[in-house]
Amino acid sequence: MKNITQQQSRVLDCIQNHINKTGFPPTRADICNDLGFKSPNAAETHLRALEKKGYITIESGRSRGISIVHKSNQEPINHEFPVIGLVAAGSATLASENIEKKIPCAQNLFSDNFDYFLRVRGLSMIEAGIMEDDLVAIKKTQDIKNGDIVVARIDDEVTLKYFKKENSNKVVLKPANKDYSDIVVESSDADLFIEGKSVGLIREN
Amino acid sequence: MKNITQQQSRVLDCIQNHINKTGFPPTRADICNDLGFKSPNAAETHLRALEKKGYITIESGRSRGISIVHKSNQEPINHEFPVIGLVAAGSATLASENIEKKIPCAQNLFSDNFDYFLRVRGLSMIEAGIMEDDLVAIKKTQDIKNGDIVVARIDDEVTLKYFKKENSNKVVLKPANKDYSDIVVESSDADLFIEGKSVGLIREN
DNA sequence: ATAATTACTGAATAAATATACAGTATAATG
DNA sequence: CATTATACTGTATATTTATTCAGTAATTAT
Predict the structure, then answer these.
(1) Is residue A190 part of a domain?
(2) Does residue A59 sit within a domain?
(3) Which residues of chain A make contact with B112, given a CB cutoff of 8 A?
(4) Collapsing DSSP states into helix, strand and coil, what is residue A95?
(5) Mind listing the pLDDT tens digit for each residue in B59-114?
(6) How many CA atoms lie within 13 A of A96 on its CB side?
(7) Is B74 within a domain?
(8) Nearest C-alpha of chain A: how many angstroms from B167?
(9) Nucleotide lying nearest to B37, CA to C1' measure
(10) Which domain holds residue A25?
(11) Residues of A annotated as catalytic (active site), given as ranges
């Protein structure tokens, strides 16, 4: 997580205090009042900086649409697991700009420990009961067996598929949807990297 | 604390859910959107009623200036939720003999609060992405809309199905599996009780 | 050195939002 | 039986609020 300046930290605190006190986030004007700024743009620019650095999210156009992503001061109750979108071509990394939000839960929620949630896009695994927008719990590991559901990266494209190793230099990534076709990767061909495997799933209705 | 009506309760839930989901309270328009009202005054009058009864406070003139005074259930951030098998004919009750195990997680893991997990048996909801052995998070409520996935008890048999009210005395429980047929319940017929509805899902691989 | 970041003031404006007012209708209450 | 509460639609409007633009100035990175 990127460093923030002292003033940005004051603004972040101000937001948290306002929520603690009133139950809802401050407006730009509220921040100015609390911290003594005379222009709403002073608050605005600090908010944009905090957003850029991943500390808050701002819902465009909505009043008080600020939420704090990362609670800097106190330790999370259990542990907060990041939710990463499967959208961005090129990376399912844990870089802050890819983190949609965080979910507090026990690391042993599933039988196997996990590292992050992946937000599912598309219907390629629908016959495995994995629907669009589901959150798949991913464990970062290279310990993959045939039949595992894996997060695979091929040439900077990330997908969720069944894993099947046909022989020493041929891997097949199988979708669970008869309308989709297998992805066959010959070891020479393209570079395939297995980010991890699915150990569970959460669906928010 | 004074009694609130069913509609007022829905509004109160809506406020809490909005805070859980976004971090800030809803506007009148947000409430209308969520609950299907067409006039902002519908939300306004409900809010005034809830304020009068002491459930919320409204800061005059401030956008989203709603705070929930009385947190009906004191929000055990970390709580253990029972897992109940759908096997036993006759009861999806919370009686200890039905509890398979307990899962520690935040009550607001899903956008809507929930009361227990139900272990799914059979394939009747497979096209909704609900597989055998999945844990469906159930909120005990009577606030059911068409299309909700409900836990229904008919003559001591408990099932998970889509809910559809055809008219005042005909309810259809629809499976999400073309090999299964609808269950039609005429109000005179059998006694149907809706235990609650699905608000989320967990799958342990 | 020169661009970028930080840290503001001050003004303007479009959009979001709370809120009042005028109705309609039904159920509950005393 | 009158009154109050509930449960809305629909319209209007003043106010709040987010957000952009034009500046100034100091600090920090490249």
Answers:
(1) yes
(2) yes
(3) 205
(4) coil
(5) 888 999 999 885 543 344 456 778 887 643 334 454 455 677 778 777 778 878 88
(6) 13
(7) no
(8) 25
(9) D8
(10) 6-68
(11) 124, 161
